[in-house]
Specification:
about 90 residues; alpha+beta; two-stranded antiparallel sheet; 2 helices; 2 strands; Cell division protein ZapA; cell cycle; cytoplasm; Cell_div_ZapA-like; Cell_div_ZapA-like_sf
């Protein structure tokens, strides 16, 4: 069994530098980090009294919510496609 090549990338999220490891490209990991950073800054603008830990949790909750909604939509579209195929 072959192990996928791990890529190490440094990213900055909300003023902190993180070294992340994954099998995706560095560009992909930077994009993900950029989106997390953007979301945290967006929530900070709406809730300036929240510290970075609470902003991170709020960001995680909203991200998982968005993921679940998209997953539901994909499942609905797959079911519709199956019906069309007969």
């Amino acid at each position: 069994m072959s192990e996928q090549h791990k890529i190490r990338t440094s990213v900055e999220i909300y003023g902190y530098t993180y070294k992340i490891v994954g099998t995706e490209t560095s560009g992909h990991m930077r994009l993900v980090a950029s989106m997390v950073d953007e979301k945290m800054r967006e929530f900070h603008a709406m809730n300036p009294s929240l510290d970075s830990s609470r902003l991170a949790v709020l960001t995680a909750i909203n991200t998982v919510h968005d993921y679940l909604k998209l997953k539901e939509q994909v499942e609905q579209l797959e079911n519709e496609l199956k019906k069309l195929k007969g």
